Amino acid sequence: MLFVLFGTPSIEFAACVDIAAAALTVLAGPMDRFAVNSRSDLQQAWRRRAHPAVLVTSEAPDASLVALLRSASAPIFVILSEPVETAASLVRDRDMEPRLAIRTASLCFASLEPVLVDPDFATAGIAVGRATTVGELMEALLPFLGIEAEGERLERLERQMATLDADWRALAVRDAARRHPGWRSVGSALSEPERRLAAEALHAYRALAARRPVDEARWPLPLLMRLDEPDEPATGEIDLTGQARTIVYGPYMGLPAGLWRVEVALSVRDNGSGNMLLAQVSCLVIHAELRVPLPADGDLSLALDIAIADPKCPTELRLSIDEGAIEGILMLRDVSVRRLPRAGREMP
Question: pTM for the full model?
Answer without folding.
Answer: 0.88
